[in-house]
Write a structure and sequence with these properties.
The chain has 174 residues and is mainly α. The chain has one domain. 76% of the residues lie in helices and 0% in strands. Helix 2 packs across helix 4, helix 2 crosses helix 5 and helix 5 packs across helix 7.
Length: 174
C-alpha cells in the first residue's frame, strides 16, 4: 500500500511539474506575487489594515493566475490546486530566508509595481467585463522598481518574514 501511495504521489508531482513547465511568464509571476503578498499579509505596519490589504492583493494575483491559466488550459484550474501551488511557493520563500532576501524584496517591489499598473488601466468603477478583460490582458511589468520602492519593501519584507516566523513558533491553541 505504501508503494502505491508513493507511485501516486510521484505521478502527481511529475504532472504538476509538467504543468508548471508550460506556464507563461505571466502565470508564474502572478502565482509568485500571490505568494509574496500572502507573506506580507501578517503585517500591521504601516497601518493595522495593511495586512488585510495584502491578503486581498494575494487574492488579486491568484485571480490573475487563474484567468491566465484558464485561457491557456481552456478551463480554469481547481482552486485547491492554485492554493496548494501558492503554499508551496510560500514555503520555498520561507525556507530560503534570509539567503533569498534580495530576490524576495525585488519580487515584492515588482509585484507592487504590477498591482499599481493593473489598477491604473482600469476605470474608477470597472464593470465585471472590464475587470475580467484586464485580468486576461495583464502582463508582468517591464518597469523596474525604484530604489525607494526597494528600500520600502526591504523593510516590509524583513518585518513580514519575522512576523511569519513568530507565528510558526507559537504553540497551538487548545
Amino acid at each position: 500500500m505504501k508503494t502505491r501511495a508513493l507511485i501516486v504521489a510521484a505521478v502527481a508531482a511529475c504532472a504538476m511539474q509538467a504543468a508548471q513547465a508550460q506556464e507563461s511568464a505571466t502565470e508564474t509571476a502572478a502565482l509568485r506575487c500571490s505568494a509574496v503578498s500572502l507573506l506580507h499579509s501578517s503585517l500591521t505596519v504601516p497601518s493595522p489594515q495593511f495586512g488585510e490589504v495584502m491578503g486581498q492583493i494575494a487574492g488579486l494575483f491568484a485571480e490573475i493566475y487563474d484567468t491566465q491559466a484558464g485561457l491557456r488550459l481552456k478551463s480554469k484550474p481547481p482552486i485547491a490546486e492554485i492554493k496548494a501551488r501558492r503554499d508551496a511557493v510560500v514555503n520555498e520563500m520561507r525556507k530560503g530566508w534570509p539567503g533569498n532576501k534580495d530576490k524576495l524584496v525585488r519580487e515584492a517591489a515588482l509585484c507592487n509595481v504590477w498591482r499599481g499598473e493593473f489598477f491604473t488601466r482600469l476605470p474608477e468603477k470597472p464593470t465585471e467585463k472590464q475587470f475580467s478583460a484586464a485580468l486576461a490582458q495583464t502582463k508582468v511589468p517591464t518597469t523596474a522598481p525604484s530604489k525607494a520602492d526597494i528600500d520600502n519593501w526591504t523593510r516590509l519584507t524583513t518585518e513580514a518574514m519575522g512576523a511569519a516566523a513568530a507565528m510558526q513558533m507559537q504553540p497551538g491553541k487548545k
